[in-house]
Write a sequence for this structure.
């Protein structure tokens, strides 16, 4: 397998020059990728993974330059190749797939034009190029390419756009494709499609792929080899099997441990990595990871560890002084990984603190001059119950209406019909007393830690704003601010700083402190960790879980990530296209889903456990979600359902009748054939491909 | 496309109606009694009343407005209260002068605006960038009348290169006509061109940051082609829209420029009409200027829709 | 736990914090030069009657004298000192914009923010702004002059009406972006009243671009006076304003170029001063934003 490598990067260093101030962003980056293999470069924000990709493409930002090292493509050093020649190599000898397919396509040119351009700049005559473009579109799985080729990017869905970008990348049969977070902007079902496409292209065309990602699950599912980056350096590399089996760098190990899992035992505290990811402009001395490392010794702060094979695990090459000295990475003892197991939380029968019945939120109707557009229910008949002390997870892909539900509950989105009650009282009207009740009892934690704190207010001012409701004296407020900070693990003398002084994880803690200032009974968390790095995500999840238990909070936890939801929730509701399609106790749903959509979501979620061949066999949803303005008749999921009329033409009931949520007392699904889904193992054979 | 146009039409119509209303109300806002003006200063009260009835000025304002608008639409622009000549005739006699100026200035504006804008958007480093930025800032900050006066002082007085006062129609004598046209046209066009250039420059540097420019680079597209097919192509919409708005400003600027360069155009006609309270003339000129501005703006929106598939296809 | 080192601000009222930021703009070189230039011109205009009592209308037989030490810009057709008349003219220009622009700023901002109270009202105001902007600027001025009659008031109204939509749109834009911000939603969910949300979260963010625009609108106003007065629809002679001086000066441009050049120099100096101030404000605002 490892004859002459396709690409070999040696001692790569990249420097930025900001008005005379030089900042070294990459240090001694070395790795290679064999022909026809898929290499994953993993790291969190600021690890230098994207910069590595840009260096290979010769597309560093203007202020940056390669200051040392070599990048050999098929034996040729790209660093030495002059720009004009490099330009001819781009697209032909190495190609790139971008993170955001919406931004990566020129909005005013047709998809076909953009593929044809990639071909003609490398010498193909225009006449032949169109035929080739059609062939490429077919190859990347775009249905009806003859029509689609003349459409514009905005007429494509996100997943289709990314397929078009991939078509451009493979247009000139480039042997190497660098994919920079190609699925980060996509929903999990679409991500699965794109990952499968990449695997298929490797199998069919033998291309070599470098996949830049932050998601260890994606690496485990798709890659052969891994490079783990931290603070602008490679900290560990090896084959996927070796690294996932026994990581030899404490960072890799901690990263894997801090991920919530969709399978296996749950209910334990996540092994969070303390601290936050370092800024490339001010790295700690020695090993950049040492301030966060449980195994760090004095030498780690003094010496930059070289990247060397670990004696007892020669498959792993790791930059850890401790592992190199001891022959392997020592276990961490009772550190983060062996956190105390938490008992399952008992089911509660108390009267609901928050109840939503048949909620509809109209998002569509806008007044025009003469007409009113038809209502479009972003949320169409959703019912939810949250009991005191209970955590309910609300899962779904983007656009399914989960955030709309949560905002309607706090009165930000107007309610078209249905009922919302808090603590047994109907607050649907959101009149004076009802609003006051909601404000006192229900609080909200937002998704984006950068947007949810006003940059012009100090933390003290932000918390004081929240404390206004309680009409405390000045001293009491002061004390309360300090208590809140302590509650979320921040020091009280940071109170007079502005939000810009804090990292994303710290800001999210402040967001939580603000919500708790009111002493609510219900906390609505809207994707509170999705904007955070994995290592930080675990910190925030732990704090949320801890506070929930200590304060007896009821939590409505909204997320797209099934693993995160599973980790925190007692009960789970799954949303699709404005409806709840399945609801029940978390463990039951994850063990035996009854709605095919839930089953597919779970299958699509990448798991950080290497399973060779899993990519080819797992169930993947075809197509895109339908336009919520114009939902399909009958069951809304039938147009993509792997057990519906697509595969069983006799199941016309799905087209005619809207299935109601039904099932036993606590576990319900809105499917006409719930028993089919339970036999999940057979589903993949029935999939159309 | 059609839906897009249909959606824009109400606001165009609203603009036209409001302008018509303002134009119609001008004489009444002016405080002068039109009946008194027509009847003359020595008329008796009875005579004034008679004129009022004759002109229909005693009827409800809305009815009068309907009548007036009806007349305008059918091409009857009324009669000047001062010279007793039909307004249409007065305007026709001055139209060619203003049109020569406006068209010359518009062409200059488009050529210079696009040229400077693309130049400013393409040069990204060093002294030339600073020089272009500086020039644009100065031109942008100086309105047509001040630009005109400075041009007069430098080119007309100091260097005595070009005539600064009066006019000769380019149809009668193209060469002399052009020498008279150059200074006023430049004065009108320069500030507007600088405005267009600045917006194109800003848009281009914004587009340059987009991912699709990176993707084009990753495809191996040569820099010149990236600049044209990707960067410039995505900046054109901005250019079209700002140009459309600026045409109205050129027409309005002509009022002052004609005064400064002593040209006998619609602007000077408007000014003298205001000074002699000849509202019938003022009304029509105001209406005329705004209608042209609105129509050009609407045309530029149509062109924008043609350029941008997101607007053309999504409605 | 790493917290970046930033200076720890003392507790202080929010408004004063904003004010301090804007004042800081005048400590930068650009702000200093612009502010200084403007202060000198204001002072000169204010003190002109004290320093040169009666000189503004003092005629003499020495018409069309060239520039000299006693008459820096020479004399006009009636032998009056052009320089002194120009300094007097500053009084009109400066008084116009100092009165009209702040009024437009306050009203325009309020109209722009009206959408927070009643969306329909906010929309209506936006329509109005569209209409005002649809009028070529001088045509609008002409309509107002016809309606009110030429003079200081008509000019002030023209400047105010024409500046109105600029502020209104900026305020509206800030309102729409801020209303969608998560920290504003957070405040709503916390039960913070509408008025407090407005003054605490929305207004401070809206003020930045509005203040920058205010100094630009002052330039526009000064030039608008000149334009309307040049054609005889603004200030009426013999009152000296930069526009009326140009109105007469252009007739004598061959015999006395300084009659035209003098007012233009002052016009450009005023524009430069306001431009530097707006630049400095903008830089100060961007700085706090990017920090």
């Amino acid at each position: 397998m490892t004859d002459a490598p396709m690409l070999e990067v040696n001692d790569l260093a990249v420097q930025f020059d900001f008005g005379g101030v030089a900042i070294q962003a990459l240090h001694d980056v070395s790795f290679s990728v064999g022909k026809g293999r898929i290499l994953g470069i993993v790291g969190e924000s600021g690890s230098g993974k994207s910069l590595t990709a840009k260096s290979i493409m010769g597309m560093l930002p203007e202020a940056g330059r390669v200051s040392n090292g070599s990048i050999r493509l098929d034996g040729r050093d790209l660093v030495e190749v002059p720009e004009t020649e490099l330009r001819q190599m781009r697209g032909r000898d190495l190609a790139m797939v971008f993170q955001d397919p919406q931004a990566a396509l020129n909005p005013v040119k047709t998809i076909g034009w953009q593929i044809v351009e990639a071909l003609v700049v490398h010498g193909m005559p225009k006449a032949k190029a169109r035929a080739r473009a059609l062939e490429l579109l077919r190859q990347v799985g775009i249905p009806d390419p003859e029509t689609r080729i003349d459409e514009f990017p905005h007429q494509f869905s996100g997943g289709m756009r990314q397929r078009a970008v991939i078509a451009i990348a493979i247009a000139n049969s480039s042997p190497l494709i660098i994919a920079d977070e190609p699925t980060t902007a996509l929903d999990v079902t679409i991500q699965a499609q794109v990952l499968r496409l990449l695997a298929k292209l490797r199998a069919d065309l033998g291309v070599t792929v470098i996949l830049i990602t932050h998601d260890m699950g994606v690496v485990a599912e798709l890659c052969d080899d891994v490079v783990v980056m931290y603070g602008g350096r490679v900290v560990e590399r090896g084959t996927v099997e070796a690294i996932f089996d026994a990581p030899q760098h404490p960072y890799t190990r901690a990263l894997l441990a801090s991920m919530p899992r969709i399978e296996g035992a749950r209910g334990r505290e996540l092994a969070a990595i303390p601290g936050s990811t370092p800024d490339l402009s001010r790295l700690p001395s020695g090993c950049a990871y040492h301030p966060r490392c449980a195994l760090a010794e004095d030498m780690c702060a003094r010496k930059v560890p070289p990247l060397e094979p670990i004696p007892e695990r020669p498959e792993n090459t790791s930059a850890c002084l401790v592992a190199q000295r001891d022959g392997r990475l020592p276990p961490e003892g009772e550190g983060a990984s062996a956190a105390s197991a938490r008992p399952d939380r008992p089911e509660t029968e108390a009267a609901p603190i928050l109840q939503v019945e048949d909620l509809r939120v109209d998002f569509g109707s806008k007044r025009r001059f003469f007409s009113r557009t038809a209502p479009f229910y972003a949320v169409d008949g959703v019912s939810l119950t949250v009991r005191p002390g209970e955590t309910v997870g609300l899962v779904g892909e983007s656009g399914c209406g989960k955030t709309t539900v949560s905002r309607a509950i706090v009165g930000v989105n107007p309610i078209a019909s249905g009922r919302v009650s808090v603590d047994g009282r109907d607050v649907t009207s959101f009149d004076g007393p009802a609003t006051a009740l909601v404000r006192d009892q229900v609080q909200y934690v937002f998704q984006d830690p950068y947007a949810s704190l006003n940059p012009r207010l100090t933390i003290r001012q932000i918390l004081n704003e929240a404390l206004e409701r309680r009409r405390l004296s000045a001293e009491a407020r002061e004390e309360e601010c300090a208590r809140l900070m302590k509650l979320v693990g921040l020091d009280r003398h940071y109170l007079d700083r502005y939000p810009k002084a804090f990292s994303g994880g710290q800001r999210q803690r402040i967001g939580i402190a603000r919500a708790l200032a009111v002493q609510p009974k219900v906390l609505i968390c809207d994707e509170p960790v999705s904007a955070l790095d994995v290592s930080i995500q675990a910190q925030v999840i732990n704090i949320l879980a801890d506070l929930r238990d200590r304060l007896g909070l009821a939590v409505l936890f909204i997320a797209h990530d099934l693993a995160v939801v599973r980790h925190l929730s007692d009960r789970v509701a799954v949303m699709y296209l404005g409806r709840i399609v399945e609801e029940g106790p978390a463990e039951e749903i994850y063990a035996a889903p009854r709605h095919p959509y839930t089953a597919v979501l779970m299958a699509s979620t990448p798991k950080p456990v290497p399973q060779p061949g899993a990519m080819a066999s797992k169930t993947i949803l075809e197509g895109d979600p339908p336009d919520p303005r114009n939902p399909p008749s009958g069951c809304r999921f039938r147009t993509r359902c792997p057990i519906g009329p697509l595969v069983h033409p006799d199941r016309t009931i799905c087209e005619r009748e809207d299935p109601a949520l039904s099932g036993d007392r606590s576990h319900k699904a809105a499917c006409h054939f719930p028993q089919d889904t339970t036999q999940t193992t057979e589903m993949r054979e029935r999939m159309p491909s | 496309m059609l839906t897009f146009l249909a959606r824009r039409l109400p606001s165009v119509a609203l603009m036209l109606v409001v302008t018509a209303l303002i134009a119609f109300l001008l004489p009444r806002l002016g405080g002068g009694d039109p009946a008194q003006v027509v009847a003359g200063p020595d008329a008796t009260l009875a005579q004034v009343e008679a004129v009022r009835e004759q002109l229909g000025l005693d009827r409800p304002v809305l009815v009068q407005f309907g009548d007036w608008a009806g007349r305008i639409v059918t091409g009857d622009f009324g009669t000047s209260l001062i010279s007793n000549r039909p307004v249409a005739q007065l305007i026709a006699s001055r139209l060619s002068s203003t049109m020569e100026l406006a068209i010359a200035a518009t062409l200059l504006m488009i050529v210079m605006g696009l040229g400077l804008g693309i130049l400013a958007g393409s040069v990204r480093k060093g002294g030339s960038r600073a020089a272009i930025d500086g020039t644009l800032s100065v031109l942008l900050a100086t309105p047509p009348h001040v630009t005109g006066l400075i041009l007069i002082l430098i080119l007309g007085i100091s260097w005595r290169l070009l005539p600064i006062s009066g006019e000769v129609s380019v149809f009668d004598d193209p060469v002399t006509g052009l020498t008279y046209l150059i200074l006023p046209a430049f004065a009108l066009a320069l500030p507007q061109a600088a405005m267009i250039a600045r917006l194109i420059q800003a848009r281009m540097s914004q587009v340059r940051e987009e991912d699709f420019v990176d993707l084009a680079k990753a495809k191996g597209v040569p820099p010149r082609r990236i600049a044209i097919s990707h960067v410039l192509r995505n900046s054109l919409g901005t250019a079209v829209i700002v140009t459309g708005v600026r045409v109205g400003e050129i027409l309005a600027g002509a009022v002052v420029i004609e005064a400064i360069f002593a040209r006998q155009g619609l602007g000077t006609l408007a000014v003298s009409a205001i000074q002699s309270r000849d509202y019938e003339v003022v009304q029509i000129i105001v209406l005329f200027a705004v209608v042209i501005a609105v129509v050009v703006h609407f045309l530029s929106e149509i062109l924008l829709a043609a350029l941008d598939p997101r607007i053309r296809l999504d409605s | 736990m790493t917290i970046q080192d930033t200076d720890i601000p003392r507790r202080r009222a929010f408004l004063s914090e904003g004010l301090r930021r804007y004042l800081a703009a005048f400590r930068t070189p650009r702000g200093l030069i612009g502010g200084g230039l403007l202060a000198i011109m204001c002072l000169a205009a204010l003190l002109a009657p004290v320093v040169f009592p009666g000189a503004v209308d003092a005629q003499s037989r020495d018409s069309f004298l060239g520039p000299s030490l006693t008459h820096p810009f020479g004399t006009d057709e009636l032998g009056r000192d052009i320089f002194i008349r120009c300094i007097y003219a500053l009084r009109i220009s400066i008084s116009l914009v100092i009165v009209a622009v702040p009024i437009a700023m306050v009203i325009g901002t309020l109209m722009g923010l009206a959408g927070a109270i009643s969306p329909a009202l906010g929309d209506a105001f936006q329509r109005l702004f569209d209409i005002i902007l649809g009028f070529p600027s001088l045509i609008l001025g002409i309509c107002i002059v016809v309606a009110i009659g030429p003079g200081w008031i008509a000019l002030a109204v023209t400047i105010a009406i024409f500046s109105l939509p600029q502020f209104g749109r900026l305020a509206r834009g800030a309102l729409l972006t801020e209303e969608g911000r998560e920290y504003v939603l957070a405040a709503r969910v916390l039960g913070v009243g509408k008025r407090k949300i407005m003054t605490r979260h929305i207004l401070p963010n809206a003020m930045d671009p509005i203040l920058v625009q205010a100094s630009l609108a002052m330039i526009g106003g000064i030039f608008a006076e000149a334009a309307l007065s040049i054609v005889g629809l603004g200030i009426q002679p013999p009152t000296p304003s930069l526009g009326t001086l140009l109105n007469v000066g252009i007739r004598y441009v061959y015999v006395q170029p300084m009659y035209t050049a003098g007012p233009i120099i002052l016009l450009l100096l005023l524009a430069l001063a306001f431009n530097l101030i707006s630049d400095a404000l903008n830089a100060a605002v961007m700085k706090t934003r990017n920090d």
Notes: Residues 194-230 of chain C form the longest helix (37 residues).
